[in-house]
Amino acid sequence: MLRVLSAVGTRPEMVKMAPVVKAVQNDDRCESLLLFTAQHRGMLDQMAEFFGVKADMDLDVMREGQSLVELTSRLLPALDDALARLCPDVVLAQGDTTTVLCAAMACFYRNIPFGHVEAGLRTGDLRNPFPEEGNRRLVASLSAFHFAPTDDARLHLLAEGIPDFSIHVTGNTVIDALLETVARDLPLPIAIPESAPLLLVTLHRRESFGEPLNDILLAIGDLVRARPSLHVLYPVHPNPTVKTSAKALLGDLPNVHLVAPLEYGVFVTAMRRATVILTDSGGVQEEAPSLSTPVLVARTVTERPLGVQAGVARLVGTNRERIQTEVARLLDDPDERRKMRVGKNPYGDGRAALRIVEILCNHTW
Ligand code: UD1
Ligand code: UDP
């Protein structure tokens, strides 16, 4: 039996690895082991509970306001010790967080093959997103299996000299999670009149901290003040920098609902119900095309250009006036929103996790 260890640290990793963990569990050629670094504590536990998965080992590394260096220095020895105890044949981790970089490094030092889920995303700018673009490039150089979600990701890896035989285009596992969840149709956490326009907001990127984040929040305030019927649903990321700014700039505005992070099923309902989504999240850009909700990406670059090319997402930067104009155009004009609907999600078909397990099982070990 192939011992497959999935290492998971943060909210988006749990969403995107849950389908993989379940596919490994359901395959009798494999033994599934689940390791939580708990780089995120509350949000990881919330997602694990939603998807009904339990960790075999939990490193519990999160500290309030952790710096990247502190986090890395706690993760590496803890991961090394976990690998020594769990003795996996292969380790899988998804994305570009500090957990993923440390898991790839720990595997490298112990000569354990590492499989990178969602490999090959690039902006081409090492400091944007920071530190994720650097993490992705480093992880690619240490991985034995590169599970690229889309063809463009495969091309990025080839351009960096990654051998073609180690790259597998699988689709993004987030679509597996989404399609399974959307059917549950859970209620929103607050009552919003059915006829009211709804702006759904998520923000958390480190490169936006300071003026860019404040500008985005000020633009939201401007939009609400100008539109008494508009509701804003904003599940605030628990990063202390984000929480403090959101509360200071939007805390007292009527119809701005600052809420704790939503359980995945409820957040999916919110994405479906929203008139417009304003976000800097990666996962949300991938999910929204399946829900026919237009997405404005509050960043200057994206490593997910397919949504922009398909027309469902628009890159609007962080400038206060620009964000106001772009959100207002969509809120006020149903034709503009219709133009952004797409027939097919370019990021996946809901079968990515099964493909990943099949590739691992068919590999000559
Ligand atoms: C991390 C990832 C980022 C990913 C994001 C998803 C890194 C460097 N950053 O950013 O790539 O897009 O997660 O959300 O890997 N906190 C809590 N409870 C939680 C989670 C976080 O209180 O459940 C607070 C803690 O004070 C923690 C802080 O948020 O120290 C920052 O967490 P951290 O994982 O370092 O960075 P994120 O900004 O969440
Ligand atoms: N999400 C959620 N509840 C929330 C906000 C986001 O379930 O309150 C989900 C969202 O659907 C997506 C993932 O969390 O699957 C995105 O997480 P985040 O934005 O923190 O990270 P990123 O995708 O930018 O790495």
Strand content: 15-25%
CATH topology of the largest domain: Rossmann fold
Shape: globular
| Overall mean pLDDT | 97
Low-confidence stretches: none
Would you mind describing this structure in some detail?
The protein has 365 residues and is an alpha/beta fold. The chain has two domains: 183 residues, 3-Layer(aba) Sandwich (Rossmann fold), CATH 3.40.50; 142 residues, Glycogen Phosphorylase B (Rossmann fold). 45% of the residues lie in helices and 15% in strands. The protein is built from 15 helices and 13 strands. Helix 8 links the parallel strand 8 and strand 9. Helix 1 crosses helix 7 and helix 4 runs parallel beside helix 5. The structure holds uridine-diphosphate-N-acetylglucosamine (UD1) and uridine-5'-diphosphate. The site of uridine-diphosphate-N-acetylglucosamine has 25 residues, from helix 1, helix 2 and helix 3.
Summarize the structure.
It contains 15 helices and 13 strands. By secondary structure, it is of the alpha/beta class. The protein is globular, with a radius of gyration of 20 Å.
Q: How does the SSE layout of this entry go?
A:
Layout: E1 2-8, H1 11-25, E2 30-36, H2 42-51, E3 57-58, H3 68-86, E4 90-94, H4 98-110, E5 114-117, H5 132-142, E6 145-148, H6 151-159, E7 167-169, H7 173-182, E8 198-202, H8 211-226, E9 231-235, H9 240-250, E10 256-259, H10 264-273, E11 276-279, H11 282-287, E12 295-297, H12 305-310, E13 313-315, H13 320-332, H14 334-339, H15 352-362
The protein binds uridine-diphosphate-N-acetylglucosamine and uridine-5'-diphosphate (UDP).
